[in-house]
Design a protein that fits this description.
Length: 100
């Protein structure tokens, strides 16, 4: 056990007696799970954005900074809609006209 000041020791010992440590452990575990889920969602969004950006560049040439910013700010759902719109679009503008 690491060093604790007397007040911390009181809370620690009281927590052990009341089962509080189990609650803390559960809270930590839930926090870790939430963090993992958020990381997965952020990773998926980043991958979708990168793929759509590359596909648009391949189809329409270099993208403007405004288009890149728009892709960066978009939700995962919007990126998915734009990805499908890219199949039939003749311009970048047509991709962005597709609604959710």
């Amino acid at each position: 056990m690491t060093w604790m000041c007397p007040i911390e020791k009181i809370f620690y010992e009281d927590g052990e007696k009341s089962g509080c440590r189990k609650g803390i452990a559960l809270g930590i575990q839930q926090g870790i799970q939430q963090g993992i889920q958020q990381g997965i969602q952020q990773g998926r969004k980043a991958a979708m954005k990168e793929l759509l950006e590359r596909q648009m560049e391949g189809r329409f040439g270099p993208l403007s900074e405004n288009v890149r910013k728009r892709l960066e700010r978009a939700s995962s759902e919007k990126l998915a809609v734009w990805g499908l719109a890219l199949l039939d679009a003749n311009s970048v503008g047509q991709v962005f006209r597709k609604k959710l």
